[in-house]
Write a structure and sequence with these properties.
Structural class: alpha+beta
Helix content: 40-55%
Largest sheet: 4 strands, antiparallel
Strand content: 15-25%
Order of helices and strands: HEEEEEHEEHHHEHHEEH
Distance between the termini: 45 Å
Number of strands: 10
Radius of gyration: 20 Å
Shape: elongated
Length: about 220
């Protein structure tokens, strides 16, 4: 990270230029991996601006199942936070750091004032629209696409091995661990993968790509 948090923040969020005088007063918050930043039904405390790390944003159901909505990285925006600030309503999702993360929190009043600046408003609304596209794609996948196809896609693009747990994959796909475990055993029987504790090794990437490319039902 840059020696100057203000300079690093502006390089990641150049649309913050109109609020440059405010930035030195914003403390940098540093969180280890696994830190809850906000929870469903919390009052939004501000607009998070990531300097480093990553935040996983998800929504949980009453039965304990959890669905990952998106991840926020430096230079990106949290849709749940901005929606809460726009509407003045409680948050509709939870955010947890996936790795050591540094961020600053733009207070609600400063966020609302910043929306009067065309560059900042364009930045926020542009990323808001992009997040909505991402969520629409996720809804389509959850509602219509075969789970085995989605799991195959989730195993691709990480090199020959993906280090993860069955529960983490289930959360990512919006299903339960038992179904993911059953599908992974099927993939292994078919020679597509080998899996051990928290490690899945791809043995037939071509077959996985073919499965991932199957059309939605």
């Amino acid at each position: 990270m840059s020696a100057s948090p203000k300079g690093h923040l502006l390089s990641l969020y150049p649309a913050m230029g109109a609020m440059a005088d405010l930035l030195p007063s914003l403390p940098v918050v540093r969180c280890p991996a696994g830190t809850p930043l906000f929870r469903e039904n919390d009052v939004c405390q501000g607009f998070p601006l990531l300097l480093a790390g990553e935040v996983r944003v998800s929504r949980s159901a009453a039965n304990g199942r959890e669905l990952e909505l998106y991840r926020v990285q430096p230079g990106e925006m949290c849709l749940a936070s901005s929606a809460g600030l726009f509407a003045g309503r409680p948050l509709s999702a939870r955010g947890v750091t996936t790795q050591e993360t540094a961020l600053v929190l733009l207070p609600p009043n400063d966020f609302q004032a910043g929306m009067a600046d065309p560059a900042f408003r364009h930045f926020v609304l542009g990323l808001f629209a992009q997040r909505m596209i991402d969520l629409t794609t996720l809804i389509e996948a959850v509602a219509f696409q075969r789970l085995d196809s989605r799991l195959a896609a989730a195993l691709l693009g990480h090199g020959p091995q993906r280090h993860t747990t069955h529960q983490a994959l289930a959360d990512e796909l919006g299903t339960v661990r038992e179904i993911v475990t059953r599908l992974l055993h099927r993939f292994e029987r078919e020679g597509l993968i080998e899996h051990s504790r928290e490690c899945i090794t791809v043995r037939n990437s071509a077959a996985l790509r073919e499965l991932a490319a199957l059309q939605p039902r």
